[in-house]
Design a protein that fits this description.
single chain, alpha+beta, 4-stranded antiparallel beta sheet, 3-stranded antiparallel beta sheet, 4 helices, 12 strands
């Protein structure tokens, strides 16, 4: 297909050809997974940012060994990087009954409970800790703590410190007062 697409980082839309493989819904938004010959890689495109699309006369065949479920198996959402999946442990504090939320709506199909007390529950995932997973963890604030892997815990710690500093720097709307 040929599509005209405008991402959030471009001031103008661009027209190019891709080979569509599948669509996926994530957080109430539909995405197209397509092969880009230009990038020689899969790319993900939000359907709401496609300005126009048309079928071309060019043909291709999706490889018989491609499986969309397998492609996204170790992903939280739509981001599938070259990172290897690994075990991620989260401590969810039970003060706001947040553990009930995680139990009723697992973040990932690999979710498992490894420890549970009156104060907290530890959840374990086998997942690629990608940008969208990181954003999900941060969206739960201080009620969720990354225990491992260390590099991911350090990344969340750094972002949390930057966030606290931005509030302490007496800034309004991203600017210093």
């Amino acid at each position: 297909v040929e599509m005209t697409y405008q991402n959030y980082w471009s001031s103008e839309p661009h027209t190019f050809e891709v080979k569509p493989y599948c669509v996926k819904v994530f957080k109430q938004r539909w995405y197209l997974l397509a092969w880009s010959d230009y990038y020689e890689a899969f790319r993900i495109y939000s359907l709401d940012r496609i300005k126009s699309i048309r079928a071309t006369d060019n043909k291709f065949t999706i490889p018989s060994d491609f499986n969309a479920e397998e492609y996204f198996q170790n992903c939280f959402g739509i981001i599938n990087t070259n990172h290897k999946p690994e075990f991620v442990e989260l401590k969810v504090w039970n003060e706001e009954k947040k553990d009930r939320y995680f139990k009723s709506l697992p973040l990932h199909h690999s979710q498992d409970i490894t420890e549970q007390t009156d104060q907290y529950t530890i959840f374990r995932y086998y997942i690629k800790p990608t940008f969208d997973f990181r954003q999900e963890i941060l969206s739960h604030g201080a009620e969720v703590e990354v225990l491992s892997p260390k590099w991911f815990r350090d990344e969340i710690t750094s972002i949390s410190k930057d966030l606290a500093n931005s509030y302490n720097a007496n800034r309004v709307g991203g600017k210093q007062k």
